[in-house]
Amino acid sequence: MRLTIKSITLRLLKFIFYNPNEKNLRNLISNMLLNKLSFFKKILYLIHIREISNFILAEDIYLNSKYDDPNIDSRIINKYIHEFENLISNIKYEPAGMLNTSLVVLYSLIREIKPSIFIESGSKYGYSSNIIAEAIKKNNTTSKFYCLSIFNNNEKQYFKKKMDKYNFVEVIEGKSEENISKILESNKNEKFAILIDGPKGRSSGWDILNKIILKYNKNIQFLAFDSAQEHLPYEIFYKYWNNKRSINIERLKITTLFKNHYQNNEFNISFQSNQFCRKYWHLNKNVFAERNKKEGVDQIWSKYNFDKINNHISICYKLGLIYKKNLF
Length: 328
Known about the structure:
This protein is α/β, with parallel strands linked by helices. It folds into 2 domains: 2-61; 70-324, Rossmann fold, CATH 3.40.50.150. It is 53% helix and 11% strand. It contains 13 helices and 7 strands. It is globular, with a radius of gyration of 21 Å. The termini are far apart.
């Protein structure tokens, strides 16, 4: 009987952790189960959640410490930081845009590596697109920049108006997984880099997108992923948030992708650290001011309140990278 309970519980946990699309259904099933289970079985259920959470956390910390590359901070960022600071002082932050502590890495990598093709999957209002375009423009090369996105209402018109000044930018509306193979096939001899900021909510779309990208591994310079902040220890997450899932699905997808397809002598994986984000926190000043203004409440957007508990708690959204070795 115990094995049967364990098997059912693990199946449920797999559903909870690996199906981010079904949030409402997941919460409903989880609550129904907890209401029906006996006290002992509720304890068993919660222990399994905590153990899986802590296992993923421990594995992630090990992987991050093994592959983290300090050269991204010490050499490349220092080379372009003042250029980036001047740039963001003249660009208005857009709602739902990436944080500048993430974009400074992206901007510096584009300036240093100068990819022939850059693809952004998920453009929204175009704040990150604007930063990327300025980096490519500064390189003064023949690079192409493809912006792939599903736009709502008047977003496309607003976005295109903003990007029209760059003659190397092509805006493509629709699902990234349906358009990216055409781009890569038509540029199959070119070195490329990609920012994946979507499809976030569609797990199947994310998987298809990365499956397509794998076909062109030899030409990849780097893959960048937004919202790759740390997993949270179960106890901390449960204490501060009304949610039983401490695993960051985006980060888990990235590490799984790396371990399954890129973990060899050619590629490294890297995630921004809390130390990095603290060091360059001043870059986010305009971001949080704009978000607070939109919400109409002071200090609603700031560093996570539980930043100081330990160093593996995230203080903000972060960038994850899978990149070719010996690029810098």
